[in-house]
Amino acid sequence: MIRIAVPDDAPPVLASSAAWRDLQGQIEGRATLDYYDTLPGSEDRLAERIAPADVVLNIRASSKFTAQVMERAPRLRLISVWGTGTDHVDLAAARSRNIVVANTPGVSAASVAEHGLALLLATARRIPQLDAATRRGEWPRGQGVELHGKTCGVVGLGAIGRQFAALARGIGMRVVAWTMHPQPLPGVEMVELDELFRASDVVSVHLRLSPDTESFIGARQFALMKASAILINTARGAIVDEAALIDALSTHRIAAAGLDVFATEPLAAGHPLTKLPNIVITPHCAGITPEALEAGLRMAVQNIWQFLN
Question: Which residue among 35, 64, 87, 265 has its CA within the 20 to 30 Å range from the CA of 125?
Fold first, then answer.
């Protein structure tokens, strides 16, 4: 009998989904289920929760699957991750123990790309600031930037980057891109990375976090960018050197930023980013629409059955 552990459905998203009902409907006679709707809170507690499992269905990236955690789960054969990122899993350790790591690529691409566009429009048009001023009885004028005809640089052309490039073209922007594994994309001009930073009025980040991309954008890249440029990041906070970003924004080395991700999450109260007037921030929610959530959870469950079959 296969044993499946869900160690971290907190706050619960799996338990209220159609994917959960499918999972429960299919385990009878095939598997037992250990389900937790609280966060483990520590490496030891995570290890305890998955110790007897053959399969883990991982909901939260705050659960770190280190070599030590995996070592304490001798039966573990599969970690099925809800989401695209696997930076919270020690992939080398998993490989050495013959543990397969599956994720759910592409299911939230449209949702994240739309959110990136919303951050861009809100930042360029200063929507939060204008909303607040209007509510105070003020009537500010002429503070927005028109994006039509300007250059959007897309860093990373995976599923989300390609969707975002299409949306940027849809509002009339010229789109240039750089990606680690170049593939032609109609209407998008491939350029060298430094040229992208120099030429772009908007830089949107769509890389996967890895040792190669940590602090990928820092002081050197901000020095290349236009003073009027906007940075959008819906990928991972650690891809951008946060201290360098705060300095670039506070000294007006770049004009503004729209951020859905941060180096440490949740963002602490009073964090320096919360005090800057030239950014729009959201709580890592770009891919959590009902549509994307359900599609991702369903794929994470399907990955389990496909692996076992």
Answer: 265
